């Protein structure tokens, strides 16, 4: 069993145990707010179950039908989790509105608060661990699962504070107000996960990764790398696919071009935390490149070298050579 699958299994088992505790708290208190918290736990379990399968599928090797691998399923997993959270928030709001017209008394508040406090501590601890490991493993699914658990912990703490205020003030409507606030909070977080998954499925640029790639290129820049442009990054689960245009001296023979591209590939792969596949298009240099080309003893130079063009996440992503003079 892979590290990712063990982490998701931890989330799944934690979710089942905490869901049972929360429903016990609901049955002894009849609190709408606690029901809201317990209902979201069902979503945690369903989401972790799907995440477990998606991690398994994402780890499968490339095949004829999936030449880029199966990593995109992680974005779909996050989409399912976001959709389930959104549904849970809607159910919570519907029940809260129903109880405005058909109220029910709340009992055993202290016992319910204690049980919810225990679940919030466990949720926060497991969520913190999953986020840390998810970032280290570059797994969007595990990181999303950890954030979901921490969000659950924050909402539980807010719930406890609200129930405590209700106990002090003897105002029963506070329970309903808490339930409605939690419902909207859950809806908002569901929307954020949906937005993140759709951006991944639509291959929206990952600015953080682009910045990381550009920083490595600037630090490891070689003289023969005259120009880099049209840089694009796609994430497939834990793997990255990067394509770009690399301008090399136009008098290089095929072996020299191959060696330069291989060097470019190896340097980036050695410094990026994710396994990366490159598609590099080699461009020959043009006379307009001479003013920022630092290649020494160039036999075809038409203009003296003046200054390197600073590579940034803005200019390396444009589909054009950097002809502008310094």
TrEMBL record:
The protein's location, in the record's own words, is: Membrane
Q: What is this protein called?
A: Cation diffusion facilitator family transporter
Similarity section: Belongs to the cation diffusion facilitator (CDF) transporter (TC 2.A.4) family.
Q: Please state every residue range assigned to the domain named Cation efflux protein transmembrane.
A: 8-202
Asked if the Swiss-Prot or TrEMBL record annotates the protein with the keyword Ribonucleoprotein, the reply is no
| GO CC terms | plasma membrane
Give the record's keywords alphabetically. Membrane, Transmembrane, Transmembrane helix, Transport
Q: NCBIfam families this protein is in?
A: CDF (TIGR01297)
Residue span(s) of domain Cation efflux protein cytoplasmic: 206-285
Main localization of the protein described in the UniProt heading = membrane
- Superkingdom: Bacteria
> Which Gene Ontology BP annotations are present?
intracellular zinc ion homeostasis
InterPro entries to which the protein is assigned, alphabetical: Cation_efflux (IPR002524), Cation_efflux_CTD (IPR027470), Cation_efflux_CTD_sf (IPR036837), Cation_efflux_TM (IPR058533), Cation_efflux_TMD_sf (IPR027469), CDF_Transporter (IPR050291)
Q: Name one Pfam family in it.
A: ZT_dimer
């Amino acid at each position: 069993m892979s590290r990712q699958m063990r982490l998701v299994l931890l989330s799944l088992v934690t979710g089942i145990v905490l869901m049972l505790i929360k429903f016990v708290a609901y049955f002894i208190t009849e609190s709408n707010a606690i029901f809201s918290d317990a209902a979201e736990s069902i979503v945690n379990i369903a989401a972790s179950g799907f995440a477990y399968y998606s991690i398994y599928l994402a780890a499968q090797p490339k095949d004829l039908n999936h030449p880029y691998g199966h990593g995109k399923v992680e974005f779909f997993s996050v989409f399912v989790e976001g959709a389930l959270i959104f549904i849970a928030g809607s159910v919570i709001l519907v029940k809260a509105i129903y109880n405005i017209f058909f109220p029910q008394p709340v009992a055993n508040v202290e016992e319910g608060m204690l049980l919810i406090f225990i679940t919030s501590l466990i949720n926060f601890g497991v969520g913190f661990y999953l986020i840390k490991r998810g970032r280290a493993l570059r797994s969007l699914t595990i990181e999303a699962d950890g954030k979901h658990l921490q969000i659950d912990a924050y909402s539980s703490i807010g719930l406890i504070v609200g129930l405590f205020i209700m106990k002090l003030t003897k105002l029963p409507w506070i329970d309903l107000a808490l339930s409605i606030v939690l419902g909207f909070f859950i809806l908002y977080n569901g929307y954020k996960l949906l937005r993140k998954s759709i951006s991944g499925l639509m291959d929206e640029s990952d600015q953080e990764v682009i910045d990381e790639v550009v920083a490595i290129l600037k630090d490891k820049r070689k003289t023969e790398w005259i120009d880099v442009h049209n840089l694009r990054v796609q994430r497939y689960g834990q793997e990255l696919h990067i394509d770009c245009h690399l301008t090399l001296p136009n008098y290089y023979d095929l072996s020299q071009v191959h060696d330069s591209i291989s060097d470019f590939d190896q340097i980036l792969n050695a410094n990026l935390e994710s396994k990366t596949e490159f598609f590099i298009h080699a461009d020959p240099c043009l006379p307009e490149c001479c003013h920022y080309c630092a290649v020494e003893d160039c036999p075809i130079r038409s203009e003296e070298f003046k200054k390197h063009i600073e590579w940034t996440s803005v200019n390396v992503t444009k589909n054009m050579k950097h002809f502008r003079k310094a």
